[in-house]
Design the sequence.
């Protein structure tokens, strides 16, 4: 049997800390402790060369079950549809009107954090409802 590997999901973005803190709110994740010898991440960031300050940030599942999310600053913005996206599983086990109501309520909460609804895909007899959204920098994700 092969070795189990941990997975980290990396986001390219303009403002890593802002996007990381958005995803903390979406997923119930937390900011991990700073490296040893630093009181907080701001102190660590100030220790970096000026061109590296603010260039990366991360968040983790406090229970250790979900993947670490890593956010890195890149100069270019998003120009095409994501090839990989997160599905935020808030409607698992729900169907029909109850599922759509749950997804809609969560989309409204996330809109309050700065996300935007792209489209609502209602159940079609084959697939259940889901809502396609964008985070605060335009990265697509689904409420599923």
Sequence:
């Amino acid at each position: 049997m092969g070795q189990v590997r941990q997975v980290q999901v990396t986001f390219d973005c303009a403002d890593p800390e802002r996007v990381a803190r958005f995803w903390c709110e979406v997923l119930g994740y937390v900011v991990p402790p700073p490296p040893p010898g630093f009181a907080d991440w701001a102190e660590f960031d100030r220790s970096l060369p000026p061109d590296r300050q603010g260039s990366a940030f991360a968040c983790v599942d406090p229970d250790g079950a979900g993947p670490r999310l890593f956010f890195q600053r890149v100069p270019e913005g998003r120009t095409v549809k994501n090839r990989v996206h997160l599905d935020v599983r808030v409607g698992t086990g729900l169907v029909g009107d109850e599922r759509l109501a749950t997804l809609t309520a969560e989309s409204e909460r996330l809109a309050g954090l700065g996300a935007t609804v792209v489209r609502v895909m209602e159940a079609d007899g084959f697939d259940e409802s889901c809502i396609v959204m964008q985070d605060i920098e335009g990265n697509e994700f689904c409420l599923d």
The first strand starts at residue 8 and ends at 13. Residues 96-112 form the longest helix (17 residues). The chain has three helices and seven strands. The chain has a mean pLDDT of 90.
